[in-house]
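Human: If only I could read C-alpha cells as easily as an amino acid sequence. Underneath my words sits a plain record pairing an amino acid chain with its C-alpha cells. Take your time, and here it is.
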Amino acid sequence: MRLYKRGRLWWCEFRVDKVRYQYSCKTDNYNLAKELAAARYADVLRENANLPKKLNKQFFLSDVWNQYQKNLNNSKETIRSKVLSAKHFLPAFGDKDIKFITKNQIIDYQYKRKLETLSLHPGKREQEVSFRSVNIEITTLHHFFNWCSDHGYLDKNPAAGIKKLNELSRLKTLSDSDIEKLIAGATNKLTRDLITFLIYTGYRKGEALNLKWDDVDMQNDYLGFVKETGLKELIVSNTCRQMKMTEENSDTDEKHRD
C-alpha cells in the first residue's frame, strides 16, 4: 500500500488479488490518512472474503469538537467567540454522531435559538432584533464541519448554504476624545462653531443651516423650530426640537448673528 498526495489531500493505492484500488482519504493529515487507508484496505479484504464490513466508528460531535479546539490557530478573540458559541450548540449536538447530523437539524436549532433571542426582547418586532450571536454560532458550526470534512470525518458540510438571520447594524458613537479631535480639526472658527453646535444639539446640518433668528428664544435660552411639509406642519420631536442653550453656545450665536 502506498500513500500519495493529489493537491492537498492524501490518497491511498493498493492491490488485492491483482486488482488495483485507489481511494481518496479526504484529509490533509498524514496520520489520519494512514488510519483511513488501513481501514479501507481491511474493508476490501473482508468484502473479498465474503465477510461483513467492520462497523464504522462513531464520532460524537463533542469528542471531535475537543480535537478541533486543540488545533485552532486563530486569534484569542476568535477562539473565545468559538468557545462561547459551543456552549450553546454542544448541548444540542454534542451526543450525536457527526455523520448523521443533517442540514435540517441545524436549521431547526437555528430557529430554536431565534425564538430564545426574541423572548429576551418582549414588545419588539422581529425586524427590530439582531440575531448576530445566533449567526456566529451557525458560522462556527460551518467552520467546524469544514474542518471535519478536511480531516476525513465527513464527506460534506451539513451547515453549508444556511441563510443568516437579521442583524441590526451597530451605530458607531464618538468618544469624548474623538469629539475633541473632530472640533480641533476644523479649518476655521465658523466651521468649528457649526460642528460644535451639531454635536451638542443633535441637529442635522440642513436643519442648523435653515434656522432663523425667529427660532431662537434668547430670553428663555431655548431654540427650536416647526418643520413645514407640504400643506401641514410637522412637529419635530414631541413638540418642537428644542435645546437649552449653554452660556458658551449663547455667546457663539451672538457672535454669528450678523
